[in-house]
Amino acid sequence: MSARKSRKVRAPKANGKLNGHCPFRIGRSRTGLGVFATEPIRKGTFIVEYTGRLLTNKQCDEIPDNRYLFEVNARWTIDGSPRTNVARYINHSCRGNADPVIRDRRIRIKAIRNIEPGDEITYDYGKDHFNAYIKPHGCQCDKCRAKRRKARAEARAANARRKKRLERKLAQQAASRMH
Ligand SMILES: [Zn+2]
Fold this sequence. Notes:
With 179 residues, the chain is an alpha+beta fold. It is 28% helix and 26% strand.
């Protein structure tokens, strides 16, 4: 396995940064690129805006599907696919530390926990996106990886117990044959 170095990628200039500066950088994550805090971000802080072309949902049906379409409400969707939309690099987590807040046809990503420097910034993409794009490949978020690790450990323990039982049984059979 190759060691994955976190490589700095310059954030495009026209990003949706809020509060005057950029408390994050784009870097290598488990699943490609991700967004990482470079300084402490207090719970409740707006981190970045999810920007892109504002389309009616009807217009959306007419363009090729892409995973960065973010439905704002029953009428509007933001097409966040341009690379200038830094927020598109924020990965999904089933237990994210941020959350999109939708208001006035704008999407802003807000910290819902205190985030430490070096932490990856993530939010829950929601059920529809999860089922369409993430579930088929297996979710790589910390929570799901921990869950799978636990399941594997339990399966290993159950196997070991089964093996022990079998060995005991064989030993008993061997012993009874000796008599
Ligand atoms: Zn997950």
